[in-house]
Records
---
Amino acid sequence: MKILIINGPNLNLLGRREPEIYGTQSFSTYYELLKKRYGIHQIDCRQTNHEGTIIDWLQEAESQYDGIILNPAAYTHTSIAIADCLKAINIPVVEVHISDIRKREKFRQHSYISPLAAQTIMGKGLKSYDLGIDFLIQQNISKPQNSKD
Ligand code: DQA
């Protein structure tokens, strides 16, 4: 199965960014473990601080991947453009958050992404990504003809 992880703004700073909320592990260290854990699957990962780039990558991924793990970071709470893109593409997208946005500031409690995501996973630290991948794999097992391997 081919899965693309898209990380939004400031997630390149994981490990040193607000460690009391996001933990002390960098995403690159975690990503190496993730690739080993899901060895038989192809798991690619990209990070950008730019909203339009997230949209470009989502549109491109539709024809190249079986599923997307999307952490839009702060764009979760603001981006009608990303939401419009999710409405336009036909590929399962799992929304992932490291922290539990429902238990944080009021402005973080609304997500434009959740109503359009196949699943939303939050509050499990970096393990949220594992759980998102597990969801996509489970879903794909019931639709093997869709695999882009
Ligand atoms: C986040 C939560 C967002 O509110 C925040 O802006 C982030 C990270 C998370 O993974 O917990 O940058 O998406």
---
Amino acid sequence: MPVIRVALDLPLHRLFEYRAEAASTADVGLRVRVPFGRGERIGVIVAVAAQGEWPDEQLKAASEILRDLPPLPPEFFGLCEFASAYYQAPFGEVVLQALPAGVRRLDPPARRAGRQTKAKPGPLPPALTAEQAKAIDAVTVDGGYSAQLLFGVTGSGKTEVYLRLVEWVLALGAQVLLLVPEINLTPQLEARVRGRFPERTVVALHSELAEAARERHWRAAFSGEADIVLGTRLAVFTPMPRLGMIIIDEEHDASFKQQDGMRYSARDVAVVRARQAAIPILLGSATPSLESWANAQGGRYGLQTLRERANPAATLPAVNVVDTRKMVLREGVSPPLVEAIRQRLAREEQSLVFLNRRGYAPVLACPACGWVSGCKRCAANLVLHLADRRLRCHHCGFENGIPRACPTCGNQDIHPFGRGTQRVEEWLQGEFPDARILRVDRDSVKSRTQWEAVLTQIHAGEADILVGTQMLAKGHDFPKLTLVGALGADAALFAADWRAPERLFAQLMQVAGRAGRAELKGQVLIQTQYPDHPLFAALKAHDYEGFAAGQLKEREQAGFPPYAFQAVLRAEAPDMAAAIAFLTAATTLPVVTEHEQVMLYDPIPMKMARLANLERGQLLAESGSRPALQAFLPRWREAIAQLKAPSRLRWHIEVDPLDC
Ligand code: ADP
Ligand code: ZN
Ligand code: ZN
């Protein structure tokens, strides 16, 4: 009897074999129901062994091969194989987790047809600028694989380039995959895509879709019925039979990196997918990741630059730093910023105060005894939220009421220390009692509907001052916004995390890009105690290239990525000693000495040393050679799996960590 080899969603690096009476090689790629343990599971058939090829006496029989979907194609498995090998993730987990929940359930819910909303046609496309035309030529000239980085300031017409490329691909009869960091934050992009191609089928794929809708959209992509798939990172694995191009918007955005389960970079997987499929890929950003920038400088990616804003009337904002060393700040706001806001109010223009910290204050403390509102479960403070009178952990979700007095000494005079968006909002309201102030952060805007309502409100001019986190930094166009003030930027300048300057620069550049997008000239005021820092000099000059060159030079000298390749082994356990002991054991395994080109650092507690009652340690592995690291990791992983570990210890390997 034929034997099928099945991928199952289990943390094990192996396939599972079953007897299957009617199976043939044509069934590779179909889902199958199989007995497992005391129950059943859904798996995917990866291979069919002919009669006699596999001893089948001991094997259980598969329950049922599911034929409601066509088989997953070899390209899908090829991509999963890459991801599994590269990220040290079990193949079965990759394959199954790449599928929407609806098709990997034993009891699939009844499927309903979805409503197709008819899109309203958008405005006619503008004539392309020479730079836009050149970028489009570069992507389309070859037909085969090519990777192009599209570097252009906000408003330079990147989206227009995407739309023209989509048009080109659709005319060839192919499908497009358009990846975005967070769909909820970019309803404008979705609307523009639908408006430009009202006759085409556009589907969205992201984790906030209801399960049934996500399955329906996935099926439409897989059957070839959908022409355009607009998705977040999880969409990168969607099988698409006519895929002709991949476009990644805001390619620098950290949300392309999955931080749990299989820890992968959708951007990097997308590049591999384009190469495997021999199709072009375009990565767009105003502030490319330094990895992509280095690839473009080194010639692995082509570089297309849009230097000017597409609308000639929309000049880049003037960026100034406010030297706060000799100023008296009130709730963190400097007199020049107050004055600038006052001017905008008088002219009926909008201002945005940017502070990347939500809540009222990051901690509540007792000056008498030194008590602080710590989270019982994490190495973090509970953040004070006055809007709903709670203390809340931003890491594990734990929350509590606000104590009336210090829990340790009974002192009634306990104070919030530091400030978040709520506190700045409160102060501004006191300073400008007639202004309409709108706070925009994940506490005030929780759903897509709320987000759309907020955007409408801003566009309609129903807010004078916006106070917000980086939610407001993403690609929106606010024509009446002419002032951006940035608070609290200094924290990232000297952070231990060597990627912090890259993130700060990108954030400030993005948020600065909100100012002056229409005919009104914009101004950006960055408050700092380090006005001469080179990062601010680059921002003032709108000089991403200079900033990137400086950062890359520093990284090259220090031997950091992209000039070195990293993976991190993390262990979490009820106590740190156990986690560190386990990591230490991983450094003394025989395989370690067999791979001289890979260097292991000492195990250390993670920055967030305790999260949700688990203590966490990490161990960094690094090599100057990617192949050397890749040769080491699977052998190391197998040896680690053989280590004796306390039963409550969990570990994983993350390749190309962003946070270590
Ligand atoms: P980005 O995606 O880089 O922020 P967009 O593509 O959204 O830029 O373009 C910014 C604005 O300029 C939009 O209003 C867009 O319609 C307009 N625009 C884009 N390309 C052109 C062009 N070639 N000529 C005139 N206006 C353009
Ligand atoms: Zn006290
Ligand atoms: Zn916590």
